[in-house]
Task: inverse folding
């Protein structure tokens, strides 16, 4: 059996020897876009030798909508309704970063209460997204009970979102200048109740998933990211934290109210699929803790929207900025350039999946068993819509 | 930070050093020194993380501005290196040997802006689009509305309103729209 | 719609290379003919309506609401909706919202690979008329120009409750024998193919993949 091509150093971009498909040793297999084991609409072109992958090429672009092009044609206030569509499972980070970027460029000061509400929204979105990820991760390894639990609790959180913002998925709650409304009566009590249930459910997930013998056997050692690969490949978020890098934008460069909150950056020692899952499990508990703290300490009165200029004639002076926030997968960033007109000059959305799903995936897939490829992909937590936008 | 910027402006002739907000500095470098500058920043100054690279089309000046966003985890500072390249026969040195994800960005820039990066792996392959025959869509002269009307058919009865006039009518009905 | 005027019985498959030409059939699709006895046809429709097996192909953002739909809270299994990993076993194709040109190629291919009887549900406002992507250069505006659509569920996102209601509506339509999308595809095959080839520039697949 031929050895899979090895990379001598982490930056060895020399393409391996071309694989002779006519030799009869190799099989070329497409995984996706029509495939249930794919984390979204993207595809992997796999070359197999037996059941071992010797080459992986990712193909993206199935969700390319040209956001960055048509955002240049829309006014600032029109854009805020479209940005949330860029990353479907986590729209709130797009809303926050877009709003914060143009607030910075336009010099708008956001009231304190709006910052708390924004942070609350982001943390709830993080919790919902992690719950969905837990379902996907366990589903990829054949545990079909866990998705039924976690997606149900995710749905309860979406109910809270619906009560607060009027929508389940695309909230459009964080607007330039503040937020759209404040917490409804009794919302806090309902949120605490749901958090309690979520915490209880997560302890059970810990038992049936993280301590499951099959899950452990299959995920330990799968897709190991060595620490010297983290910086050259631009790996961020839980994938880097599992490799021992204590990097969290909420701690390192605090935005919103995170400097007033008490939480820990969870790290592990070896970034394989199991440790990455473990880091995310711990982050779910941190997240629940953060939401409780915010609900307790949030101001209950005061303005929640800044005085805004007439948005129908809103011109923003020339400038550029790059703002980032820690989403579930790591650094999510918005690069916005304005030129003094009513239209944005350039928006670039930096999604962490861009590296995780393409360069990192192609490297880690080599040498993996074909049966584990879906689990590897989920363990990197990739969302295709933020790659191609 | 400041001593580094002074050294860079002396050794690499970087210009337009602006602090945009605390922790984010932009500067402009020449095309021929850009790769050396990026290597220097990565190896000696600790800017080990490439956040992203992208391009801005300044059609009125006839240039593409390539933006390399670098981050230093130790000093928590971000540096945005701008490089202006000519719009005609746009070409730039590939940095795929510096960062392992850079070739992906270069594929995207090649496809959506038409900027060539000789030597970058798989740069000729399709990235987001498939079988695209027009000019690269992210260029400013590409008219996306005209392309849509030419290529796709809309259902009958679709109307278009000018959002500003429409909203002005709703918000200020008595004034006949906000003028 | 233009009726199929072409009389030749085979397809050209001009997009394929010479060695691939032999691998694919060049036959045209054939229309479904109902049973001559009405009671038998009604029974067949009743069976079809109660086993809506959807293709697990998340073509767009609408796929995110399919997960709550299939899991414990909304549990679409109780009304006979189940996910299937391959087009060969599926009878319902849910188009989750907008579809880019690159995805449309895969949608056409998957749709043609599905065995009859087959039904298409389009989610969201984007397949109806482009929605907010009306000026995007890479998304199609009207899905029914490229494949026949039996049922639209509008909204952005359509909620799981609406999806359940849509599945029940589709069941009713199937029982009444009103879902003739696949037959429309056969009758207007050349029109659909011309539309598909107009937007899918890189056509390197057989004209009818089944």
Result:
């Amino acid at each position: 059996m031929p050895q899979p091509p090895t990379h001598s150093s982490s930056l060895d971009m020399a393409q391996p020897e071309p694989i002779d498909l006519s030799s009869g040793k190799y099989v070329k297999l497409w995984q996706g876009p029509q495939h249930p084991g794919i984390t979204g609409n993207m595809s992997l072109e796999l070359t197999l030798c037996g059941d071992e992958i010797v080459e992986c090429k990712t193909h993206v672009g199935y969700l390319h909508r040209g956001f960055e092009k048509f955002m240049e044609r829309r006014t600032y206030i029109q854009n805020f309704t479209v940005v949330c569509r860029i990353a479907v499972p986590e729209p709130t980070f797009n809303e926050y970063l877009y709003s914060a970027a143009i607030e910075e460029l336009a010099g708008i000061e956001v009231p304190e209460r709006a910052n708390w509400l924004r942070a609350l929204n982001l943390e709830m979105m993080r919790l919902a997204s992690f719950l969905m990820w837990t379902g996907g991760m366990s589903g990829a390894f054949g545990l079909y009970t866990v998705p039924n639990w976690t997606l149900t609790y995710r749905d309860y959180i979406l109910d809270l979102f619906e009560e607060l913002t009027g929508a389940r998925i695309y909230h459009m709650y964080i607007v330039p200048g503040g937020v759209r409304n404040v917490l409804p009566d009794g919302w806090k009590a309902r949120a605490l109740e749901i958090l309690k249930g979520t915490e209880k459910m997560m302890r059970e997930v810990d038992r049936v998933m993280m301590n499951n013998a099959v899950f452990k056997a299959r995920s330990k050692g799968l897709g190991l990211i060595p620490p010297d690969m983290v910086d050259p490949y631009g790996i961020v978020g839980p994938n880097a934290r599992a490799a021992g890098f204590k990097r969290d934008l909420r701690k390192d460069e605090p935005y919103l109210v995170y400097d007033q909150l008490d939480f820990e950056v969870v790290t592990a020692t070896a970034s394989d699929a199991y440790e990455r899952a473990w880091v995310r499990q711990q982050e779910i508990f941190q997240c629940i803790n953060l939401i409780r703290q915010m609900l307790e300490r949030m101001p209950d009165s005061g303005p929640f929207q800044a005085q805004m200029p007439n948005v129908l004639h809103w011109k923003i002076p020339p400038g550029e900025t790059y703002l980032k926030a820690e989403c579930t997968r790591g650094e999510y960033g918005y690069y916005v350039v304005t030129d003094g007109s009513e239209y944005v000059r350039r928006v670039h959305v930096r999604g962490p999946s861009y590296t995780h799903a393409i360069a990192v995936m192609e490297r880690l897939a080599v040498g993996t068993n074909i049966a584990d490829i879906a689990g590897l992909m989920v363990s990197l937590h990739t969302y295709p819509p933020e790659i191609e936008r | 930070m400041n001593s580094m910027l002074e050294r860079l402006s002396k050794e690499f002739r970087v210009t337009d050093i602006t602090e945009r907000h605390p922790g984010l500095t932009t500067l402009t470098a020449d095309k021929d020194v850009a790769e050396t500058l990026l290597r220097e920043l990565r190896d000696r100054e600790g800017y080990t993380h490439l956040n992203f690279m992208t391009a801005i089309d300044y059609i009125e000046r006839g240039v593409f501005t390539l933006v390399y966003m670098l981050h230093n985890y130790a000093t928590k500072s971000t540096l945005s290196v701008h490089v202006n390249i000519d719009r005609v026969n746009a070409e730039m040195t590939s940095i795929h040997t510096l960062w392992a994800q850079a070739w992906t960005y270069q594929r995207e820039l090649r496809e959506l802006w038409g900027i060539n990066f000789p030597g970058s792996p798989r740069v000729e392959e399709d990235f987001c689009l498939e079988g695209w025959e027009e000019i690269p869509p992210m260029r400013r002269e590409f008219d996306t509305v005209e392309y849509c009307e030419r290529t796709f058919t809309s259902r009958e009865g679709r109307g278009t309103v000018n959002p500003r006039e429409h909203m002005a009518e709703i918000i200020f009905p008595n004034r006949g729209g906000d003028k | 719609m233009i009726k199929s005027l072409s009389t030749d019985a085979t397809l050209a498959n001009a997009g394929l290379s010479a060695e691939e030409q032999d691998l694919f059939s060049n036959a045209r699709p054939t229309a479904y003919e109902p049973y001559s006895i009405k009671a038998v046809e009604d029974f067949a429709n009743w069976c079809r309506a109660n086993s809506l097996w959807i293709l697990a192909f998340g073509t767009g953002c609408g796929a995110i609401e399919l997960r709550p739909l299939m899991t414990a809270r909304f549990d679409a299994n109780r009304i006979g909706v189940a996910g299937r990993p391959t087009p060969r076993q599926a009878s319902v194709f849910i188009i989750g919202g907008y579809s880019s040109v690159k995805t449309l190629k895969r949608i056409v291919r998957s749709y043609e690979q599905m065995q009859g009887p087959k039904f298409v549900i389009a989610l969201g406002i984007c397949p109806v008329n482009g929605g907010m992507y009306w000026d995007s250069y890479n998304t199609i505006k009207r899905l029914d120009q490229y494949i026949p659509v039996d049922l639209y569920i509008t909204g952005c996102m359509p909620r799981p409750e609406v999806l359940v209601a849509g599945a029940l509506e589709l069941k009713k339509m199937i029982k009444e024998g009103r879902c003739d999308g696949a037959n429309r595809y056969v009758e207007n095959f050349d029109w659909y193919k011309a539309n598909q080839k107009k937007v899918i520039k890189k056509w390197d697949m057989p004209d009818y993949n089944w």
Summary: Residues 1-7 of chain C have pLDDT under 50 and may be disordered.
